[in-house]
Amino acid sequence: MQEHEDYPVHLISDIQPHGVLLALNPENLSILRVSSNSADYFNIPSQQLLQNPLSMAIAPSCLDTLYPCLSTSSTSFHYQRVEVLETGKLFDGFVHHIPGQVILELEPAESHASDYFIHLQHTVGQVIQRLRSISDRAAFLQHTAMEIKQLTGYDRVMIYQFDDQNAGSVVAEATSMDNISYLGLHFPATDIPRLVRELYRKGMVRYVPNLTAPGVELITTEHPLMRSPLDLSGSILRGVDPCCIDYHLNMGVSAFMVVALVQGERLWGLMTCHHQTPKALPYSLRSACEVLGQFAASELMSKVHEEELAYLHTLNTIQADFLTSITAAQDFTQALIHPEPRLLALVGASGAAVCLDDRITLIGQTPSLEQVGDMIDWVMTELDDQIFYTDCLSQHYPLGLAIKAIASGLLVLKISKLRRYLILWFRPEVLQTITWAGNPHESFQQSDEGHLVLSPRTSFAQWKETVEATALPWKRAEVDNALTLKHSIVGIVLNKADELAQINAELERKNRELESFAYAASHDLKEPLRGINNFTNIIMKRHGEQLDKTGLNRLKTLIRLAQRMDALIDALLKFSRLGQTELNDQLTNIHTIVSNVIDGLSASYEGTGTTPQFQIPRPLPSVICDPVLIGDVFSNLIGNSIKYTKSRNPVIEIGYVAAQEQQGQQKQQGHRADDQQSQVSHVQPEHVQPGKGPIFYVKDDGIGIHERHFQTIFRLFKRLHDRESYGGGTGVGLTIAKKIIERHGGQIWVESNDGQGTTFFFMLSYADNS
Asked: What is the CATH number for 294?
């Protein structure tokens, strides 16, 4: 199969007999090769021409006009009328250059009156005018085939369109051969090998007037350049491969001409002309067909079905609306997947999967989460391109057969080259019946050695095949829409990142200013506050006997307020210092930290009538942190658990949930205490990434917190009760705890029911404690 695809048709060793070929030395225009039929045209034997100058065969009057074409090193083709010296006959001459040689091909020219060419030019102009007035693409193609048939007189003219797999089908046909029609029939990619397609893509017109005429060999000199075969890629007279001859003879064709339909760099299709008997066509008429082929290829780009235009407009509208919404959205991920139909309509899919690292969201009709996960692993390891699409997934991904009903078609968009950020769209299986021109499997036969070899089909009768595990193909507009989405997402993310960076920089500056102000203000407030407190005490000592009971109470209130103010300033100082001091990170035994906190708190409650019961289900792990600051966190949390209770014997549990025990955002029941593991259930908010380090918790059986206060309790100086209730306080403990944990790159959250106890959770930097 690969040998067939790469068969060097351009290095065939002979030419067709309706002309003569000469290969010239570009330095002196001596003849290095010549076709063996030169005597038929020049009356000079081929061997006699070798190594002699071109002037031996061509009339001097023609050489003067030929020299500029022969001496100019150009890849373009040149046409020139040429007169042969010995016979005086006129030829159509074609010149092109290959490395180290100049190729001159000559075909006998037909003598026409000058008005013939004027008439031909006028005819071509009228054909173009008629075709240009046709707006429907199918009608345009059909009329093009009819016009070419009428112009050339071939028995059949077909227009053949390639698909994405390099197979193709006949999309228009004009024929007088009533025995068989190829309209609508498909032809496998092997019928036109890769190298032949490449020659057509370069705009080649292939003309074979007689398939049964024997080829003419090339005679060469002993020149070093002649040791390798002559490259006939650009040759008009290039010989015909035996496989190609058998193929066309099996179709009942004795002569053909093929005009390539090229759009930019893409080979769209072919305009193929067949004749049942040998048929010669003058160069002027072939040139006219080439012009019409170029016009048809160009016009096809603008002949788009109205429904395609409407669909393209619909896609553009969806795209614009989609990008507007995700640009304005606060939550980019939610805007990407909601509402669900919009992401599917963007490319005409029935299902989609959005993967952002380890988080996969399924939309519409999709394979299972596990199957999608396996497919994403395959995409990340096997596919390098930013976009991949197929209408037959099982050809690329063997596991695709198991999900063909809902995912025969796949379009993958990689949003990031570094992260697992990608979108997969799915299309279901659509059973298709394809009508081939003959059984395509008969193109392969087994040789005596047991190898599969390509052989021309002997029958081109209709042969139907049901194709499974395929979906409707992705349209170019849909693929382009996906690419536009990728570029837009990257642009939006970069803009948001830039905006966020600016906001963060401004916020950091203001925080520094605020912290500096708070530190300076609290430090400066200390001095007058001490003065107020001292002078109040002096007044009470020296003049207390002169004051009545009301006056004394007011002085005591003033002292109490000054002391509270002093405590608030101390808290403010501590809070402001948190943003200015460097963390003293080190590997810290949390169990030791908590034990010290418990010892200190237990001592402070001796003789108060309150006896806390502390439980640590299992030894607490060591993590990297600032031991003093994390000690303050546990002191605040455990202290609050003792304070905010109505029991004289509050039960307080301090523990952790290991990384491997975490299960995302679902509520998880812990193991029993006799297993020395956590008895606590925990809920992780969406913004908390699981599985990267231990989650510590402090649980109590106290008064609880209503859900509406879950965020309020972390605000500075915010208390949910009056100042004297539950032992009083400044309302900064949880604020400081939150600040400390955030300084460690972590997060803190609360789970509680009013009147049923509270559990505070926190985790530190993921990277340091994984």
From this structure: 3.30.450.40
Tokens of 274: 């067949």
The amino acid at residue 65 is T
The residue whose two tokens read 């640590």 is 616
Residue that finishes a domain, picked among 519, 547, 581:
581
598 lies in the same domain as 692: yes
The reported pLDDT for the residue numbered 100 is 87
The answer to whether residue 230 is domain-embedded is: no
CA angle 118, 123, 125 (to 5 degrees): 95
Rg of the chain (C-alpha set): 44
Helices H / strands E in the chain, number of each: 19, 29
The answer on 89 and 131 residing in a single domain is no
Average the pLDDT over 583-597 and give the result.
90
Report how far residue 247's alpha carbon sits from residue 256's, in angstroms, rounded to the nearest whole number: 12
- CA–CA separation, 355 and 397 (whole Å): 19
Same domain, 91 and 122: no
Residue 214 in this model has a pLDDT that exceeds 50: yes
As a whole number of angstroms, the distance between CA 733 and CA 730 comes to 8
Helix axes 476-543, 306-328, angle to 10 degrees: 10
Range 176-180, long-range pairs (CB < 8 A, 24+ positions): 176/149, 177/252, 177/274, 177/276, 179/252, 180/460, 180/461
Nearest C-alpha neighbor of 650 from the set 620, 681, 611, 689: 611
Instruction: Round to whole Å and give the CA distance between 79 and 77.
Output: 7
Residues with Cβ within 8 Å of residue 450, at least 6 apart in sequence: none
Residues 720/708, Cβ–Cβ less than 8 Å: no
Q: Band of the pLDDT at 378, cuts 50, 70, 90?
A: very high
Query: What is the pLDDT at residue 448?
Result: 60
243 near 201, Cβ under 8 Å? no
Please list the helix, strand and coil fractions of the chain in percent, rounded to the nearest 5, in that order. Answer: 45, 20, 35
Specify the number of domains making up the chain: 5
Q: How does strand 651-657 pair with strand 613-615? A: parallel
Report the share of the chain in percent with pLDDT over 90.
Answer: 35
Compute the CA torsion angle 365, 371, 372, 373 (nearest 10 deg): 160
Same domain, 372 and 261: no
64 and 32 co-located in one domain = yes
Reported as a single tens digit per residue, the pLDDT across 670-685 is 333 334 444 455 555 5
The reported pTM is 0.58
pLDDT number for residue 534: 80
Q: Based on the domain organization, do 575 and 613 belong to the same domain?
A: no
Q: How far apart are CA 384 and CA 583, in angstroms?
A: 43
Average pLDDT for the chain: 82
For 300-361, the DSSP string reads HTT---HHHHHHHHHHHHHHHHHHHHHHH-SSHHHHHHSSHHHHHHTTT-SEEEEEETTEEE
Q: Residue range 493-504: average pLDDT?
A: 64
Query: Could you give phi then psi for residue 156, rounded to 5 degrees?
Result: -140, 135
What distance in Å separates the CA atoms of residue 283 and residue 92, rounded to the nearest whole number? 8
Residue 665: what pLDDT? 41
Q: Determine the Cα–Cα distance for residues 99 and 105; give it in Å rounded to an integer.
A: 17
Contact 430, 221 (CB under 8 A): no
Q: Could you give the C-alpha distances from 199 to 260, 273, 293, 488, 576, in angstroms and in order?
A: 9, 18, 16, 38, 76
Residues spanned by the domain of 701 = 582-763
**Residue 578 and residue 740 in contact, taking contact as beta carbons nearer than 8 Å:** yes
Residue pair 763/749 in contact (Cβ under 8 Å)? The answer is: no
Rounded Cα distance, 224 and 294, in Å: 39
- Say if residues 321 and 340 touch (Cβ distance below 8 Å): no
- Same domain? For 38 and 119 the reply is no
- Burial of 499: CB neighbours in 10 Å, binned 0-12, 13-18, 19+: exposed
For residue 243, is it within any domain?
A: no
Q: Which residue type sits at 413? A: L
